[in-house]
Amino acid sequence: MAFIDCHFFSETLGLSTAMYVILPQKTTGQIGMKGHVTGDKHPVLFLLHGMSDDHTIWLRRTSIERYVANLGIAVVMPSVHRSFYADMAHGPKYWTFVSEELPRIARSFFPLAEERERTFVAGLSMGGYGALKLGLTHPERYAAAASLSGATDVFEFATKRASSTEAVNIFGSTGLIPGSGNDLFHLADQLAASDQPRPKLYQCCGTEDYLHGANARFRDHCRSAGLELTYEEEPGTHEWGYWDKKIQRVLEWLPLNEAKG
User: Fold this and answer.
1) Is the residue at 257 inside a domain?
2) pLDDT band at 260, cuts 50/70/90?
3) CATH number for the domain including 30?
4) Domains: count for the chain
5) Residue 261 in domain
6) Distance between CA 153 and CA 136 in Å, rounded?
7) Is there a contact between 127 and 183 (Cβ–Cβ < 8 Å)?
């Protein structure tokens, strides 16, 4: 595998930012790990961080590079700070950045596939919310979206868990969230009522996690709307031991056989 610490300028954010990128490399002499490549351009997983972390965290807290080495998949890990993957009411437009500019820039720098069936997104906590938001908003771009302990009820987060200042900075009035593009429940309903292709959806959460109730509500909402969703829960809290295990499960779940090109 190749690892790139990539720093670049974002026109959307108006500042320099960074992403970690893992690229497949076919190897035979690397001790303890054999690489795999599936084609000239690599299937890509956009892997999103949580609220207290940054683009470095997946590589620091898990063995994601080792987990993907034999899969022939690239991993792009951007930095979005505490934006909740939103075009902030009082701050930068991180949703536009991660949904539009980031994929375009990453593909201009690296040999990443552009086809929907070879493009995936996953994340944890705030990043789990971001992954589902991307998959539900742009089902024509993502074949699969996976949430690990995701903050699926952003209205609950904004009204009960965030400070009033932070919630206003991100969303403006919290009353604007329900029924908006920041509301996963609304986005699920929109997708269910459309003729858009439906990405595979995966959701997991530990039963002792403080976000378990919100995850169960979103699971039930998706199923009542008729969306296909793989849901898994088991004992666990909001911590990296759980996410290190479940990201391996996500990689097993991804439709990579359909992504070969």
Assistant:
1) no
2) low
3) 3.40.50.1820
4) 1
5) no
6) 14
7) no
CB of 110 closer than 8 Å to CB of 121: no
d(CA 125, CA 237) in angstroms, rounded, equals 11
pLDDT over 90 (residue 163): no
Give the pLDDT confidence of 176-218 residue by residue, as tens digits.
999 999 999 999 999 999 999 999 999 999 999 999 999 999 9
What is the 3-class SS of the chain, one letter each residue? CEEEEEEEEECCCCEEEEEEEEECCCCCCCCCCCCCCCCCCECEEEEECCCCCCCCHHHHHCCHHHHHCCCCCEEEEECCCCCCCCECCCCCEHHHHHHHHHHHHHHHHCCECCCHHHEEEEEECHHHHHHHHHHHHCCCCCCEEEEECCCCCHHHHHHHHCCHHHHHHHHCCHHHCCCCCCCHHHHHHHHHCCCCCCCEEEEEEECCCCCHHHHHHHHHHHHHHCCCEEEEEECCCCCHHHHHHHHHHHHHHCCHHHHCC
User: Cα torsion at 241, 215, 229, 116 (round to 10°)?
Assistant: -70
Per the confidence metrics, is the pTM higher than 0.85? yes
The CA distance from 203 to 216, in Å, is 10
Which tokens in the block code for residue 217?
């509500």
Residue 79: domain span:
2-252
Q: Is residue 173 part of a domain?
A: yes
